[in-house]
Please model this.
Amino acid sequence: MNNLSKKEPFKIAVASGKGGTGKTTVSVNLQYFISKFWSEKVLLLDCDVEEPNDLIFFPESEITGNKEVHLLVPFIDTQKCTFCRKCVDWCEFNAIVVIPPVKFAQVNQSLCHSCGACIVACNNGAISENKVSIGEINNYKTQIGVGLTEGKLKIGSAMQTSVIKALKSEDFNNAEIIIYDAPPGTSCPVVTTVSDADFVVLVTEPTPFGVYDLSLTVDLLKEMNKTTGVIVNKSGLGNNEVYEYLEQNNIPILGAIPFNKNYASKYAQGNILKNILIETEDFYKEIISNIKKYIN
Amino acid sequence: MKTVITSTGNTLDSNFDLRFGRAAYFCVYDEETEKIEFIENIHSNDQGGAGSKASEKMIELGVTKIISGDFGPKAMELLDQFKIRLILMSDESKKVSDILNLMKK
Model:
């Protein structure tokens, strides 16, 4: 437990590749069981900023903090603009429209990535930056560990990574362990989420889709030099492909959680932390002891 | 008065392209001079903003009417600002020449 004596919290990311495999279920349960069997100072961080849903499982939560996340978006002063289109050429994201014959120049906020290139490109000082809100960060006191913090992206914004980065830059000094509930997929928001994780828990399901998307995520995490382990959720469904894949690629299985229709209905009601079955506790006890094994 | 027809290729025999921002070519028809010109859509495979870029081109060319299958929200917002008429057609089996003939009638 050397890692816990350091001031920097130990970060566990829960990712999957395929959506709907059980990242949220595992994240919420991990926080609960870690608080019970490992460290009470465990924080849950909902990094799925496009649709954060961890909060659903904490009906008795209380909001303790709220902060807006801003980004600087360029604004073109058409009085100073010479309509030379240099900024348009520099913009990688097609976010700037300049139409010389009608003296039109505008930045599309939803396409802009706030890279600042256009400001450097402009020789006429026609571009300045305005603060634009792209989302918010909410802190909640829950009954579990040191609570939940979530990032929430504004609908229409494509800047997931900026909200995730702002979320991570919050002060989490009171936490010894942080669980990142990652977004699905393998694109930028996932990379940003797992980038500083000390260990990545991959949740998969034993279906061909689960295996395929898992393999994409495994390749990504290999390139990022991340230590990983897999939880096979809804085991008993599908086929054995996932086990063959994991064996061939030498990826440790942290645990298997059998498919259970009653559990799915508890999830749908937001009740996974109520009347927890002893078998569920056993699954997570095993998973936690395996995580501890692999992090040393 | 210039009209643009979105096209999958650069000849009059090419099929009509249902997409605006992602169309392969723009067939520009000048009603006064009866000149027909095909312009390649260099942004058709861009990651994002293809609709904005296509609209930018239309306004720059002084187009007053566009015939296509559909227009995205960013394209529509820009084209509306310049009062460009948008005409929707859903028959992708039509050739660009068929549409031109319909217009000339």
About this structure: Chain B has one domain: 2-104. The two ends of chain B are 16 Å apart (CA to CA). The longest strand of chain B covers residues 2-7. Residues 2-104 of chain B form a domain with the Nucleotidyltransferase; domain 5 fold (CATH 3.30.420.130).
